[in-house]
């Protein structure tokens, strides 16, 4: 696999501020899902390596929340063990969610994209929602 975290030439990668990226993705997501309220909390100064695939992986996680009938999504950004941790919490159907459309490969692809970018994805469904924990590599200064 190609290591996006250390290869800015791959897929037109660029260094960006995570909070700026999340705010841009929020606008795109909320345009398509105006019924969902999204809140972003956390450290404003973290830099990550991103590209179109990473952005699609993050949007896919948000879209899964909307598909599970979430009305609110909260994004919490923190630093854990020198990596960026993004927790995506929603109030959707959680363990009661049954996929009714699509191929069922969205989160698998998102996980693979995040791994190639030096990160990871872990989903936990609860009776009243879900929590997806995403880790991302920090860009060295």
Explain what this protein looks like in three dimensions.
It is built from three helices and seven strands. Helix content is 30%, strand content 33%. It has helices at residues 18-32, 52-67, 106-116, and strands spanning 14-17, 37-42, 47-50, 72-80, 83-90, 120-126, 129-136. The chain has one domain: Heat Shock Protein 90. The model has no long low-confidence stretch (mean pLDDT 85).
Structural class, judged by helices and strands?
alpha+beta
* Total strand segments: 7
**Which CATH architecture is right?**
2-Layer Sandwich
> Structurally, how many domains make up the residues?
1
Measured by DSSP, the beta-strand proportion falls in 25-35%
Rg to the nearest angstrom?
14 Å
In the CATH hierarchy, the third-tier topology is known as Heat Shock Protein 90
CATH superfamily: Histidine kinase-like ATPase, C-terminal domain
Q: Report strand order across the widest sheet.
A: 2-4-5-7-6
Notable features of this structure?
about 140 residues, alpha+beta, Heat Shock Protein 90, five-stranded mixed β-sheet, two-stranded antiparallel sheet, 3 helices, about 30% helix, globular
Secondary structure layout plus pairing:
Blueprint: E1 14-17, H1 18-32, E2 37-42, E3 47-50, H2 52-67, E4 72-80, E5 83-90, H3 106-116, E6 120-126, E7 129-136
Parallel strand pairs: 2-4
Antiparallel strand pairs: 1-3, 4-5, 5-7, 6-7
Helix pairs in contact: 2-3
């Amino acid at each position: 696999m190609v290591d996006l975290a250390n290869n800015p030439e791959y897929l037109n990668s660029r260094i960006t501020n995570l909070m700026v990226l999340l705010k841009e993705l929020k606008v795109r997501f909320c345009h398509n899902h105006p019924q969902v309220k999204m809140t972003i909390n956390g450290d404003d100064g973290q830099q990550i390596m991103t590209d179109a695939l990473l952005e699609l992986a993050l949007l896919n996680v948000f879209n899964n929340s909307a598909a599970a009938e979430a009305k609110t999504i909260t994004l919490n950004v923190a630093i854990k063990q020198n990596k960026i941790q993004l927790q995506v919490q929603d109030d959707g159907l959680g363990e009661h969610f049954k996929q009714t459309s699509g191929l069922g490969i969205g989160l698998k692809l998102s996980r693979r994209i995040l791994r190639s970018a030096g990160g990871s994805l872990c989903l936990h469904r609860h009776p009243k929602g879900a929590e997806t924990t995403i880790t991302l590599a920090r860009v060295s200064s």
